[in-house]
Amino acid sequence: MIERTVTIKNRSGLHTRPAASLVKTAARFESEFYIKKDSFEINGKSIIGVMTLAAEQGSTLQLSFSGADETDMADAVTQLFDEGFGEL
Amino acid sequence: MRSHSFLTKDSANSNHFLDSQGFRVENGKQERIIKGLPASGGIAIGPAYVYEREEVYVSERILTVSEVELEIQLLAEAMERAHVELEKIVSFARQKINEEAAAIFESQLLMLSDPQMHKALEKRLRDERKNADFLIHDELEKYRAIFGAAKDELLRDRMADLDEVGQRIMRNLQKKRLHSTVEGEHVIIAEQLTPSDTLLFSRNDVLGYATDIGGITSHAAILSRSLKIPAVTALHGASKDIVTGDMVILDGQHGLLIVNPTEEHQREYARKIERIELLEAELADLVDLPCETSDCHKVELSANAEFVNELEFIITQGSNGIGLYRTEHLYIAKGDFPSEQEQYIEYSEIAFSMYPQPVIFRTFDIGGDKLLERGVSEMNPFLGWRGIRMMLDKTDIFRRQLRAILRASSMKNIKIMFPMISGVAELDEVLAVLADVKNELTEELVPFDEHMEVGLMIEVPSAIFVADELAKRVDFFSIGTNDLVQYLMAVDRNNELIADLYQEFHPAVIRAVKSIIATGHANGIWVGMCGELAGNPLATVMLLGLGLDEFSMVPSVIPEVKKIIRSTSYEDAKGVAETVLRMPVASEVRAYLESYMRERYPHFMATLLNGENGDNGNHKLDGEHGA
């Protein structure tokens, strides 16, 4: 299992478009992917789950990946957060 | 901030009276003015059509063991039909509006195929042996509890999308069909409209949307704005007392719905519509006329742009070219600095499309509020490593961009400008790099415009005080008011605690602008402006009077600003500028400019001041009669 910590940089947080691109990216991989915010954990492949996180700009999230392609998946997902989902 | 109140209007002289509740009654029908939130601008007058979506009723049933597998199968089929419906809507949205609108429904598609939801439904189906539509309803209620409690309004609005998806699956489970069509021209009145209702009704002659429930950030509201259909929302129960056929006026600028309007109000609003249409027509006629004052003082109006696909719109707005082409999006899209060739392709396409009109490319202005390199964090990014500062540290990236811009300049309609220049030493360093890159291209026998105009943005206050020295080294200045105001006033406009100190009409700002223009002119160079102030119609006459040579703004306001300039004399504008320069506080400047504009351009300013830039719904109807 790989764990990463990311911070949301884009101003609108994980709203419609960023949430969609996160879920779409996650769907390309087989590994399981969970996102934890405070004590709340959701499946990162679930758009509804991602929306319920209500993660705003500045929120810190713990990501965990486990499965055959966990390294590639962790890199791809972390990159999205680093780039602020192209909204910076 | 949702408010709900009934406004009444007193009038001494007609055949109506106020009933016991204060409503005005005329010809047996009682006028009611209901206040909601302005969701999409514009005015609609017409008969109401009360739309009631066919409710999907669900009842809880316990399935037999043998029915469970069949129910799972039926759920999968319903999901599939819902998928097909939504895909059609996505492509309709893409074709009728744009990619952004399509994305709204694409996110609904993602909800529909949410693996977590599928898993939960299937598990509950097997464990609890309940019917699928009931379980979906139940799951939705769970989410409603989470989303409804969110402090974030945007998030609460997203529940509307999830609801629509759930309804779509349940309807398909019950094998019902949906009909979002209305015959004839109507103002649609509904408790709530889903994003797809908003989109699908637009296939008919719908005049406007009035809804009890909704927010201005909801996807339904966003879609009405894209479709240019007037809309008012948060009317709190208004739909219950309206019947199909009632005459209504929907004022999407102020968030009002007037039911059974008096003849006086109907006339007043008919005049408003006429005025808006007239204004739009007049503005359309302006496109090909030169931008000059009544006494033949010419100025340039150009557009701020950042994407190739904006060019067509810019050309139709009658601009004199592009006064600010932002290049940062190339970095953002790629997540890294683009290659010289990638940049060259884009820059030359823009130069070619706009030819013979000029395009001013601003070199990468990265950092500050835009973006930081990965792994770099600064205590104070606005005062940090951004704009030209970063480029001078990363000269290979800077050189690559300069090469691309120069290569695209061979048609001689390109200019370049540098952001965040703070002094002469910095500018000299930049110009040395530029000269070196030019030499390099010359040696390589690559064609470019050797006399390409070079300018700099004046946005760092220190540049104002050495503007005379800077002016000797370049061909033009472009005043970037957004950052200039923030730096001059030491205020971050995004910080709510002090945002009111961000004053574009502050005397210090106006004096700074005057000084920059005067210094530029004294040194024989032209001075433009590419901040928001340049596109604020309230500032147009003042800036004209201060001697500004070029105004660069969002393309959509070009016709309005052009109209103001064409109907003003340069002499009058100078008078306005002189008056304003004597005023000690921003509020006085604003008040003076507002009254000046109201006097000179009454119908025009009524639309402008009450429109997008105006207040959101705090407007009293009475206040407008004189305007």
List the helices and strands and how they pair.
The complex is a heterodimer of chains A (88) and B (627).
Chain A (H helix, E strand, L loop, with lengths): L1 E6 L8 H12 L4 E6 L2 E4 L3 H6 L7 E7 L3 H13 L6
Helix pairs in contact in A: 1-3
Chain B lengths: L5 E2 L9 E2 L5 E3 L2 E7 L1 E4 L2 E9 L13 H32 L2 H14 L2 H14 L3 H17 L4 H21 L12 E5 L4 H7 L4 E6 L7 H9 L3 E3 L13 E5 L4 E4 L3 H24 L13 E6 L5 H6 L5 E5 L1 H7 L5 H15 L4 E4 L25 H6 L1 H13 L6 E5 L5 H20 L9 E6 L2 H5 L1 H5 L4 E4 L1 H9 L17 H16 L3 E4 L10 H6 L4 E4 L4 H9 L3 H12 L4 H15 L1 H9 L17
Parallel strand pairs in B: 6-7, 7-8, 8-9, 12-13, 12-19, 13-14, 14-15, 15-16, 16-17, 17-18, 18-19
Antiparallel strand pairs in B: 1-4, 2-3, 3-4, 4-11, 5-9, 6-10, 10-11
What can you tell me about this protein's structure?
The complex is a heterodimer of chains A (about 90) and B (about 625). By secondary structure, chain A is of the alpha+beta class. Chain A contains three helices and four strands, in the order βαββαβα. Helices cover about 35% and strands about 25% of the residues of chain A. In chain A, strand 2 and strand 3 (about 40-45) form a beta hairpin. The longest helix of chain A has 13 residues, at about 70-80. Chain A is globular and about 35 Å long. The relative contact order of chain A is 0.32. The model of chain A has no long low-confidence stretch (mean pLDDT about 90). Chain B is of the alpha/beta class and about 625 residues long. In chain B, a hairpin with a 5-residue loop joins strand 2 and strand 3. Chain B is globular and about 90 Å long.
Instruction: Quickly give the structural class of chain B.
Output: alpha/beta
Mean pLDDT figure of chain A: 90
Looking at the chains present, what oligomeric state does this protein adopt? heterodimer
Which residue ranges of chain A are poorly predicted, with pLDDT under 50 across at least 5 consecutive positions?
A: none
CATH architecture of the largest domain in chain B: Alpha-Beta Barrel
Count of distinct strands of chain A: 4
Calculate Rg of chain A over CA atoms.
Answer: 11 Å
Name the helix and strand elements of chain A from N-terminus to C-terminus, one letter apiece.
EHEEHEH
The computed structural class of chain A is alpha+beta
> What does the largest sheet of chain A look like?
4 strands, antiparallel
Number of strands of chain B: 19
